[in-house]
Amino acid sequence: MRRRDFVWGISGAALALPSAALPQQATVPVVAFIHSGASDALARYAVAFRQGLKQSGYIEHQNVVVEYHWLEGHYDRLPALLEDLIRRRVAVIATPDTTASLAAKAATATVPIVFGAGIDPVALGLVASLARPGGNATGVNFFSIEVDTKRLGLMHALLPAATRYAVMLDSNDPKTAESTTKSLTEVAPHLGLSLKFVSANSPQQIDAAFMGFASERPDALFIAGDSLFASRAQQFATLTMRERLPASFTTRGMVEAGLLMNYGTDIVDMFRQIGVYAGSILKGAEPADLPVLQSTKFDFAINLRTARALGVTVPPSLLAMADDVIE
User: What is the DSSP string of 101-132?
Assistant: First the structure.
């Protein structure tokens, strides 16, 4: 037999083999991580997400690729980004962000989505029910709206003489802004508080809002739980100390930066849970069958250094309640 015929015979036999019998090149799944904040300010959350993936058996750069898309408050980037991700058929879209979650759900009914939502995901239309989501999305409800009234009550206990509150909202996050406005408006009269709502959707508008406080000074500032605001911790710390304005937010990072207090869901744990669910879907689980998780860890911290600088006396009862006190 001529060598050429022999080679052709081997090649033809290989072509005739079932595809399952041929060597397969493993395809590493791609998880698209979308958040409206900034990577440098929220690095700890990305670490928690990777820890969740690892719990499910997926390690970045080994058996999974994670694409990080940090919007830095530019929600206008979402349509083109989602169109590209859907076209490339990424394995999972992970969106620990209410607005990005809604955009992803509106963009695709087939690509699996693992969301983080601060508002009831059934009311938002993300899932049919908490127990049986029924579509291509599941995730975590982190109760940012439900804890707003508790946070306002804690601020009132910490600052009993303060009656005029400024509430800062992100107009680019209308669902959160609407729900925060509704919940605080309902509870404020019972606490004897008056509220003034101020919109800011960029670092420049945050600066401008504080300039406005000079002419109509509030007694305290309530910063709505928003991803853009979470990524501007140092800016808020600098401005609130400059204006000597007691302020609160939902996450501990703000208090560590210098704000007076925080109360809210343990967001780091929420990001970890989203990573776990993303890994479960990579293993073959269907979002429709994964019940929406309810956050159970909450965090209350007080910065005593800031309290002393502002002349605020912290009641012993609140110190006893706090999960962390920064001296």
Answer: HHHHHHH-SSS-EEEEESS-HHHHTS-S-SS-
Residue listed under structure tokens 């409206």? 36
Residue 215 lies in a domain: yes
Q: Are 116 and 139 in contact (CB under 8 A)?
A: yes
H-assigned helices in 17-147: 43-55, 78-87, 98-107, 121-124
Residue 140, SS3 per DSSP: strand
- Same-domain check for residues 97 and 238: no
Q: Which two tokens stand for residue 88?
A: 């490339």
Residue 224 sits in which domain range? 148-263+299-326
**Residue 322's CATH number:** 3.40.50.2300
* Shared domain check, 93 and 140: yes
Same-domain status, 251 and 184: yes
Domain count, the chain: 2
Output the CA torsion sign for 144, 261, 253, 265: negative
pTM of the model: 0.84
Question: Which structure tokens are listed for 83?
Answer: 């169109």
Q: Is the pLDDT of residue 313 over 80?
A: yes
199 & 245 share domain: yes
Closest to 139 (Cα-Cα) out of 33, 25, 262 = 33
How far apart (Å, rounded) are the C-alpha atoms in residues 201 and 204? 8
Domain shared by 292 and 179, yes or no: no
Strand intervals (E) in 144-297? 164-169, 194-199, 220-223, 247-249, 261-265, 293-294
Task: Give pLDDT tens digits for 199-247.
Answer: 999 999 999 999 999 888 999 999 999 888 988 999 999 999 999 999 9
